[in-house]
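Contributing new complexes? Match this layout with adenosine-5'-triphosphate.
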Amino acid sequence: MARTISIANQKGGVGKTTTAVNLSAALASKGLRILLIDFDPQGNATGALGLEKNAVAKTVYDVIINGLDARAAIQKTAFKVEIIPANVDLAGAEVELAPMTQREFKLSAALEPLHDDFDFILIDCPPSLGLLTLNALNASDSIIIPIQCEFYALEGVTQLLHTIELVKSNFNPLLAIDGVLMTMYDARTRLGQQVIAEVKKNFGYLVYETYIPRSVRLSEAPSFGMPGVAYDKRSRGAQNYLALADEIIDSNRRS
Ligand SMILES: Nc1ncnc2c1ncn2[C@@H]1O[C@H](COP(=O)(O)OP(=O)(O)OP(=O)(O)O)[C@@H](O)[C@H]1O
Ligand SMILES: [Mg+2]
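Output block (do not edit by hand):
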């Protein structure tokens, strides 16, 4: 039975896609069967795994809007990860979903038949709390919340937690916070340490022990169509995503 995890935070540019792509590749490199769902019309995860987002024949849009069998939309990548890609087609999906019955459950229904084929299904959410993110949270066992180590780190987190509570009380009572991931951490600044202290005050043990450092290698990898963990496995950023994968595998074993 796959464990399904959404990587979500409606705040833009906090490291959701970088985490989705590198954690997927890190877990796959440890021999686990990984499916990544690109659930953002920007299609950044699709590109970061080496696919040309404007050339993919089938996308997650076809799955949730046109009822395409999810299996038919899965693409292999060069990094052991399999992906259901996305592109700008998905931008219209929120409006098209709105009048549909079971509109909050399109993704969870589509993924249901795949649960025996994968160990983890990761969902890269868009930077909003609309119907796409609701679909992702309803399809998930848990959520990873990336938080960027910057001055306004916790801005918007209240709305995100509110949305999680709404999803739990209305749709998916077992949805859990898998963990809070500190991203773009710079150990040389006091700000980084202050932000971590502040986030720990709010989330306590939910903060992963692994922090993701600010890393040029991680940020340049997508331009080569590669996850950072494949582009430069020895870089600090890559090593920390591999450590995060271990942390998540361990916690999954315990739960
Ligand atoms: N650890 C890191 N070190 C350096 N740069 C990073 C790191 N993580 C992410 N970035 C860069 O920061 C930018 C935003 O990251 P990313 O696309 O992963 O965020 P996001 O939350 O998915 O954004 P969006 O909300 O637009 O989907 C990108 O240019 C990415 O390369
Ligand atoms: Mg993104």
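Reviewers usually confirm one structural detail per submission. For this one: Residues 3-248 form a domain with the Rossmann fold fold (CATH 3.40.50.300).
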